[in-house]
């Protein structure tokens, strides 16, 4: 299988917001060396606490931002250093659905204009077919075409997210980064939006990157899941494998903190996360998780572990030599 998109050695550093410009300006290491392959038609979940860099990866993937170093390769083309004029064509393939529809949908525009703008900008339809195309989009996301002359505030949160999805679909993308698309919604509405995303994926042969801080929604929609901690991926595996056989202590801690029934809990001690996630300005040396890890040994404070296959040839990878040495499971 050839990946649709490759993330290679991605780093994204930026100055802390509101800090004074100058030599000693604090730098946030938002993403600090991430490699990923995203395959056509799959959903790759990315999970981690807020501030772990997952949204930053999402923005680099859809070329909303440029990496500090590393590359994003889409359909064999390096897009991370492409001139803006060439990116315009690429952007129709790579779209994003945001958590916060109050800022992603212009409150002063009717749904009609919200959907028309990207299609006209990218030359997806001619003006005479615009109306028909907008009706189709609304129908696709489960809204009525009569709703197109309303404003975003006239809709419920769930309906607004449907409009956000329609806007992403309007330019006929192949890959959509869904950044916490249901986190702001009532629990009763979340399943409807997740099912809509799944149904659209099948119908339109879409590839998703699904970003979330909790495991519930990610487990439901993802084929594979990457767990992030302080700018790095600490574990990645197919969804079932990850839940059946978590290796990294941080992954286990996340499972233990979530209300999901976890059969592996019966076999081992619960891991309770102590303390806050450390600052991404000066991440801990060695394994970044050592300040909170109950299994940390001296060498963890020095050696920064690589993400390695847990068995030869396995596509389940983890970044913890202590667990991989065959000890605690
Ligand atoms: Fe814990 Fe050490 Fe493994 Fe890091 S490398 S997760 S500190 S045991
Ligand atoms: Mg975020």
Automatic annotation (TrEMBL):
<keyword id="KW-0813">Transport</keyword>
<dbReference type="GO" id="GO:0016887">
    <property type="term" value="F:ATP hydrolysis activity"/>
</dbReference>
<dbReference type="GO" id="GO:0055085">
    <property type="term" value="P:transmembrane transport"/>
</dbReference>
<keyword id="KW-0067">ATP-binding</keyword>
<comment type="similarity">
    <text>Belongs to the ABC transporter superfamily.</text>
</comment>
<dbReference type="InterPro" id="IPR003439">
    <property type="entry name" value="ABC_transporter-like_ATP-bd"/>
</dbReference>
<dbReference type="Pfam" id="PF08352">
    <property type="entry name" value="oligo_HPY"/>
</dbReference>
<feature type="domain" description="ABC transporter">
    <location>
        <begin position="5"/>
        <end position="255"/>
    </location>
</feature>
<dbReference type="InterPro" id="IPR017871">
    <property type="entry name" value="ABC_transporter-like_CS"/>
</dbReference>
<dbReference type="InterPro" id="IPR050319">
    <property type="entry name" value="ABC_transp_ATP-bind"/>
</dbReference>
<dbReference type="InterPro" id="IPR013563">
    <property type="entry name" value="Oligopep_ABC_C"/>
</dbReference>
<dbReference type="Pfam" id="PF00005">
    <property type="entry name" value="ABC_tran"/>
</dbReference>
<dbReference type="InterPro" id="IPR027417">
    <property type="entry name" value="P-loop_NTPase"/>
</dbReference>
<dbReference type="InterPro" id="IPR003593">
    <property type="entry name" value="AAA+_ATPase"/>
</dbReference>
<dbReference type="GO" id="GO:0015833">
    <property type="term" value="P:peptide transport"/>
</dbReference>
<keyword id="KW-0547">Nucleotide-binding</keyword>
<dbReference type="GO" id="GO:0005524">
    <property type="term" value="F:ATP binding"/>
</dbReference>
<protein>
    <submittedName>
        <fullName>Oligopeptide transport ATP-binding protein AppF</fullName>
    </submittedName>
</protein>
């Amino acid at each position: 299988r050839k990946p649709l998109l490759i993330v290679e050695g991605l780093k994204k550093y930026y100055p802390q917001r509101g800090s004074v410009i100058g030599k000693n300006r604090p730098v946030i290491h938002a993403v600090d060396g991430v490699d990923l392959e995203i395959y056509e038609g799959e959903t790759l979940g990315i999970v981690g606490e807020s501030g772990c860099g997952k949204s930053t990866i999402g923005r680099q993937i859809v070329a909303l931002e440029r990496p500090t170093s590393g590359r994003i390769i889409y359909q064999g083309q390096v897009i991370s250093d492409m001139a803006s004029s060439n990116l315009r064509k690429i952007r129709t393939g790579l779209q994003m659905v945001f958590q916060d529809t109050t800022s992603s949908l212009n409150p002063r525009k009717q749904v009609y204009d919200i959907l028309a703008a990207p299609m006209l900008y990218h030359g997806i339809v001619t003006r005479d077919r615009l109306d028909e195309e907008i009706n189709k989009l609304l129908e696709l996301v489960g809204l009525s075409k009569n709703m197109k002359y309303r404003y975003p505030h006239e809709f419920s949160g769930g309906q607004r997210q449907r409009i956000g999805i329609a806007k992403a679909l309007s330019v006929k993308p192949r890959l959509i980064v869904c950044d916490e698309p249901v986190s702001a919604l009532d629990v009763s509405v979340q399943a409807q939006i997740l099912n809509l995303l799944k149904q659209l994926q099948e119908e339109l042969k879409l590839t998703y990157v699904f970003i979330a801080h909790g495991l519930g929604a990610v487990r439901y929609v993802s084929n594979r899941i990457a767990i992030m901690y302080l700018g790095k991926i600490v574990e990645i595996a197919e969804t079932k494998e990850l839940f059946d056989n978590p290796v990294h202590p941080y992954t286990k801690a996340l499972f233990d903190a979530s209300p999901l029934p976890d059969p592996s809990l019966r076999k081992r001690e619960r891991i309770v996360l102590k303390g806050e996630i450390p600052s991404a300005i000066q991440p801990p040396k060695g394994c970044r998780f050592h300040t909170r890890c109950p299994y940390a040994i001296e060498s963890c404070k020095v050696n920064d572990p690589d993400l390695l296959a847990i068995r030869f040839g396995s596509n389940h990878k983890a970044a913890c030599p202590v667990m991989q040495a065959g000890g605690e499971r």
